[in-house]
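Researcher: Please predict.
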Amino acid sequence: MHKVIEPKILYFGTPVVLISTLNEDGSANLAPMSSAWWLNQSCMLGMSRKSKTVQNLIREQECVLNLPSADLVGAVDKLALLTGANPVPETKMQRGYSYESDKFGTAGLTPEPSDLVKAPRVAECPVQLEASLIKVHDFGEPSSLVSIEVAVTRVHIDEKLLMTGEQNYIDPEKWNPLIMNFCEYFGLSGKLHPSRLVPVFGPPSREEGSRALS
């Protein structure tokens, strides 16, 4: 079950993101991408203006950023060479892309209604971020790449990821994002070393949490 929270920290590293948007006919489009980073309630997405997702996002002014966990790698990979654009753009056709109208069904994923935007969330993703478009920044000719700035308007988190005894803190040891590293899929290998940033920016220590519950 997902829960609406107001997280104190909204930073998920550089995971794969499944972006859900609406097509012109009201059907849902779903596309994986991995050039994304967060700062407070804002997110920057690096994509091509030629993509169906970007066209939908500019037209509809909203989307959902669904973050899959590492165990969803199979579903994500089924979407890797699919496009919602029909006909398939020549550049994508040369790379082996094919058109698919039902990306949710193809990936075996479940759409569920969002609260504030029309695009659906991906039920299986433990992190779901509803977002609205702020601005599209062009990289300049001849590149079609754009940096898309969106504002996160609602955060849905699987309650299993929350720190015990806390309402708005995500436990970093419970969150195992799917990460794209040089076009290969990776997960996390576990915490490597304590961070001195935790007392400044992070959630309460487990000792503090235990005292609060005692």
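Model: Residues 208-214 have pLDDT under 50 and may be disordered.
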